[in-house]
Amino acid sequence: MQRGCGLPRVPRMLIRGFALLALVVIAQRTELVAQPRLSAALQGQIVDSVTGKPLEGVLIRIDTGPEVFSDVDGRYHLMGLRPGRHMLALLTSDCRVNWGSVVLIPDVTTEASFELAPPIGTEREVQREAAERRRSFGRLITRDEIERFNPRSLVDVIRRYAPRMVSGTSGQPGSTTGITQRAPNSLTGLLEPVVVVDGTRMVDAAETISMIRPGEVETLELLPSSSGGWEFGSSGSAGVIRITTRKGAQDLERTGVAACRVPNFPGVIGS
């Protein structure tokens, strides 16, 4: 009997090989589909809602983890993000949390800008107002000025810029030097100015001043009685000496959003 024309017979082993190869290819394609492509990007600007000025140092973090600080122009840029809808947490330097929502598209840079309210009534604003009042009445001496003067002691610096705050003569055998100033409307005469070191009010003005070397000082603020009384009441009527040491200034610089936590948000901000 003669066989009809048709396809040539394919060995079973070859068919099984092709089937196995097809399964591997399908599995790999499925795995690639399951893994999201980190191809989206996000950028924008953070501004003050009142003044419209850019806000530097705002921490922007997306719910998948990446974070970035806004620059001097208030701009930020995040790359390599997962497409889809995401939540944003925006932290200001005084630990105020602001929320935002964005939809990221594959291979597209999404623009998302935010207006944040100024820190009205916050501790930072109070400190700014206090600094402005002190500068309008008192004298702020910087580290550079102290170094140029090259004093032997911190008392010499105070005597140079506020001689009424220093009693006695330094450098003479047997003489004593005190930190005093005649307070207005005072029946007792001489009183000690309030001395604040790195934000902490000290008990003994003269002893504190004598223990601090000029090279340790970052800034020295000398406030006469007219500007010292508003902050410390009657105890500040003899003036205020506010000292910020170099260590204190460095500690202040390290204090920021790194210590802030975002409630109900994955992870710790700035850690």
Mind sketching the topology for me?
Elements lengths: L11 H23 L5 E9 L10 E4 L4 E3 L5 E7 L2 E8 L5 E8 L4 E3 L2 E3 L6 H15 L1 E4 H7 L4 H8 L4 E2 L10 E2 L1 E2 L7 E2 L2 E4 L2 E2 L3 H7 L5 E7 L1 H8 L7 E6 H9 L17
Parallel strand pairs: 1-7, 1-8, 14-17
Antiparallel strand pairs: 1-4, 2-3, 2-5, 5-6, 9-16, 10-11, 12-13, 14-15, 16-17
Helix pairs in contact: 2-6
Descriptive notes:
This protein has helices at residues 12-34, 123-137, 143-149, 154-161, 205-211, 225-232, 246-254; strands at 40-48, 59-62, 67-69, 75-81, 84-91, 97-104, 109-111, 114-116, 139-142, 166-167, 178-179, 181-182, 190-191, 194-197, 200-201, 217-223, 240-245. The chain is an alpha+beta fold and 271 residues long. The protein folds into 2 domains: 40-118, Immunoglobulin-like; 123-253, TonB-dependent receptor, plug domain (Ferric Hydroxamate Uptake Protein, Chain A, domain 1, Beta Complex). A 5-stranded mixed beta sheet has the order 9-16-17-14-15, sandwiched between helices. Strands 1, 4, 7 and 8 form a 4-stranded mixed beta sheet that branches. The N and C termini lie far apart (84 Å).
**Percentage of helical residues?**
25-40%
| The top level CATH class name of the largest domain | Mainly Beta
Structural class estimated from helices and strands: alpha+beta
**What average pLDDT do the residues reach?**
74
Largest sheet report: 5 strands, mixed
Number of strands: 17
* Topology order in helix (H) and strand (E) letters: HEEEEEEEEHEHHEEEEEEHEHEH
Number of helices: 7
CATH topology of the largest domain: Ferric Hydroxamate Uptake Protein, Chain A, domain 1
In CATH, the architecture of the largest domain is: Beta Complex
* CATH homologous superfamily descriptor of the largest domain: TonB-dependent receptor, plug domain
Beginning-to-end CA distance, first to last residue? 84 Å
Main sheet strand line-up: 9-16-17-14-15
The dominant shape is elongated
How many structural domains does the protein architecture include? 2
Low-pLDDT runs: 30-34, 170-176, 182-189, 267-271
Radius of gyration: 34 Å
Q: How much beta, percentage-wise? A: 25-35%
